[in-house]
């Protein structure tokens, strides 16, 4: 198949055929409408304004970051009432990975609300770890978890999440991430938490520059010493930060549709800074964040970037390579996977 001969509709097939990785994905954001409805019925939960499955679908269509956080905490997480309910998320994750041909994913899990509701952290991680093992055994797809210590509940809660993580380490746990609304907690408040995590060999990440200016990204880099930046799109306002990110080749976990939905620094693919970052040598990766909520899965993100003429197909392939090499897989694993991915990509040019 030759690139020039490809019809627009055929691009979906090409994108689907490439084995991919994803590095910025929230497992709660994979919860399907069917899952939330099933849990609501199972536990006889009353949710304001929600009486039908259609009401849940409408509620999932958030308009800003505050709406999203409200949905995330008060609807999605609120419907999980026992540790066993997490098995629904595992199945949703499994389905998502298959649909998008993702062979490796690093996925955030936010335990704070669950723990506050009396869930056992150890039991939750047993369910998630067992689910990851099942998916790897039966589907040959690998999942690693990043524990979201969350700004929204403060540094003390974050340290508690870290201590629980260290006490209940599983092979599938990679590290911790700082999520939640940036405006509710500057990264500098979490120095001690992240220093302790690094001391114990955990990977450390942070959402930054999603809803707050470039100072949030600087703080994540300098105060928390993170390996990657979640979102990072407000870097476009600070040329020195862009130069620093480009020089250090710090991966940006960019989630275009998520940013468009929240509307803080981008309102369309056309005015999203992802192309600007790419052209200026920043390390750009593409991710879906919370695909059920934002209505765009990983394949959709690549397809939309391609058909909106933001990137060519050759450049989409480069972004897929970036995603692979930004993972925490070993160098050997990255090299082996890239050979397999490239073989399939090369068929598009013959």
Key terms:
alpha/beta
User: What is the H/E string?
Assistant: HEHHHHEHHEHEHEHEHEHHEHHHH
Overall mean confidence score, pLDDT: 93
Beta-strand portion reads 5-15%
Low-confidence stretches: none
Question: What is the tally of beta strands?
Answer: 8
Number of spatially distinct domains: 1
Structural class: alpha/beta
**What is the radius of gyration computed over CA atoms, rounded to a whole number of angstroms?**
19 Å
- Counting H and I runs of at least 4 residues, what is the number of helices? 17
Can you give the helix content as a percent range? 40-55%
Whole-Å distance between the termini?
Answer: 6 Å
Describe this structure in words.
The chain is of the alpha/beta class. The protein has a single domain, classed as TIM Barrel (Alpha-Beta Barrel), CATH 3.20.20. It contains 17 helices and 8 strands. The protein has an 8-stranded parallel sheet with strand order 1-2-3-4-5-6-7-8.
How would you summarize the topology of this molecule?
Layout: H1 10-17, E1 20-26, H2 33-43, H3 53-59, H4 65-76, H5 86-99, E2 102-109, H6 112-116, H7 121-139, E3 142-148, H8 154-167, E4 173-178, H9 191-199, E5 203-208, H10 214-223, E6 228-231, H11 239-248, E7 252-254, H12 256-262, H13 274-279, E8 284-286, H14 291-294, H15 298-307, H16 313-325, H17 331-346
Parallel strand pairs: 1-2, 2-3, 3-4, 4-5, 5-6, 6-7, 7-8
Helix pairs in contact: 1-15, 5-7, 8-9, 16-17
């Amino acid at each position: 198949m030759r690139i020039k001969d490809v019809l627009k509709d055929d691009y979906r097939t090409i994108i689907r055929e490439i084995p991919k990785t994803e590095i910025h994905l929230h497992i709660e954001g994979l919860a399907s409408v069917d899952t939330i409805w099933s849990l609501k019925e199972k536990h006889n939960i009353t949710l304001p304004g929600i009486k039908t499955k259609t009401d849940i679908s409408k509620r999932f269509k958030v308009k800003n970051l505050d709406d999203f956080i409200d949905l995330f905490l008060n609807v999605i997480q609120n419907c999980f009432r026992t540790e066993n309910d997490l098995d629904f998320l595992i199945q949703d994750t499994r389905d998502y990975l298959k649909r998008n041909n993702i062979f490796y994913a690093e996925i955030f899990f936010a335990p704070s609300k669950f723990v506050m509701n009396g869930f056992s952290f150890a039991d939750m991680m047993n369910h998630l770890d067992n689910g990851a093992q099942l998916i790897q055994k039966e589907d040959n797809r690998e999942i690693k978890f990043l524990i979201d210590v969350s700004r929204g509940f403060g540094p003390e809660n974050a340290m508690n999440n870290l201590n629980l993580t260290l006490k209940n380490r599983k092979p599938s746990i990679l590290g911790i991430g700082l999520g939640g609304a940036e405006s509710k907690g500057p990264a500098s408040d979490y120095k001690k938490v992240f220093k302790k995590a690094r001391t114990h060999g955990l990977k450390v990440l942070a959402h930054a520059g999603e809803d707050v200016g470039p100072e949030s990204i600087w703080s994540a880099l300098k105060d928390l010493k993170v390996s990657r930046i979640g979102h990072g799109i407000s870097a476009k306002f600070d040329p020195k930060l862009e130069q620093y990110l480009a020089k250090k080749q710090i991966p940006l976990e960019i989630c275009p549709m998520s940013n468009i939905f929240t509307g803080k620094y981008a309102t369309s693919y056309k005015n999203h800074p992802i192309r600007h970052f790419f052209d200026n040598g920043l390390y750009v990766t593409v991710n879906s964040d919370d695909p059920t909520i934002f209505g765009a899965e990983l394949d959709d993100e690549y397809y939309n970037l391609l058909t909106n003429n933001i990137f060519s197909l050759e450049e989409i392939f480069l972004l897929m390579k970036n995603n692979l090499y930004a993972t925490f897989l070993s160098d050997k694993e990255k090299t082996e996977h890239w050979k397999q991915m490239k073989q399939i990509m090369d068929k598009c040019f013959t």
